[in-house]
Amino acid sequence: MNKDWYVVHTYSGYENKVKINLEKRIESMGMDDKIFRVLVPEEEETETKNGKTKVVKHKVFPGYVLVELIMTDDSWYVVRNTPGVTGFVGSAGSGSKPSPMLDEEIERVFRNMGVEDNTVELDYVLGDTVMVKEGPFAEFAGKITEIDEAKGKARVIVDMFGRETPVEVDFDQIEKL
């Protein structure tokens, strides 16, 4: 089954609350293998008020949240019944499943937010020796002990000050040795 992005309609002003509630439900109901990312698209704008300039975030789609999931009866139920959610966009009727966003649409949303869709091809296996390329653990080598494909992260044991230390890194922060 494919994972796709879907648009969820929420009460206006409740987008961040829906995101938090949905993430809690995903964790508590063990749905992290079917529901992957919840996104409230925002863009930063510089505003000048009373001679002071500050950066303010505005919602790109007020009243909507984007959810990446594999559409099953369970995942559909979990999202639909999250407090603050009024329904999916693109469903023909109350009993029909919604249509996913087109790839071009979600790519445009990510581009406008300045975010790259960080889907990375997985070419790591448990036990691989890797070098951390960036972040606070750059230049440390270690072995992969855990892989979370859904989140695009790996747990790597690095040798720091003579001690084995587990660190969590994104797939794009490491490379095979």
What does this structure look like?
With 177 residues, this protein is α+β, with helices and mostly antiparallel strands. Helix content is 19%, strand content 40%. It has 3 helices and 11 strands. The chain has a 5-stranded antiparallel sheet with strand order 10-9-8-7-11, with no helix packed on it. A 4-stranded antiparallel sheet has the order 2-5-1-6, with helices on one face. It has a two-stranded antiparallel ribbon with strand order 3-4. Strand 8 and strand 9 (153-160) form a beta hairpin. The protein is globular and about 55 Å long.
How would the blueprint of this fold be written?
Layout: E1 3-10, H1 15-28, E2 35-39, E3 42-49, E4 52-59, E5 64-70, H2 73-80, E6 85-88, H3 103-113, E7 129-132, E8 141-148, E9 153-160, E10 163-170, E11 174-176
Antiparallel strand pairs: 1-5, 1-6, 2-5, 3-4, 7-8, 7-11, 8-9, 9-10
Low-confidence stretches: none
Structural class: alpha+beta
Number of domains: 2
Share of residues in strands: 35-45%
Q: Helix count, per DSSP?
A: 3
Radius of gyration, in Å, reads 19 Å
Name the shape in a single word: globular
Distance between the termini: 33 Å
The name of the CATH superfamily of the largest domain reads NusG, N-terminal domain
CATH fold field value of the largest domain: Alpha-Beta Plaits
Number of separate strands: 11
CATH architecture assignment of the largest domain: 2-Layer Sandwich
Order of SSEs? EHEEEEHEHEEEEE
The CATH class designation of the largest domain is Alpha Beta
Classify the helix fraction into a percent range.
10-25%
Arrangement of strands in the largest sheet: 10-9-8-7-11
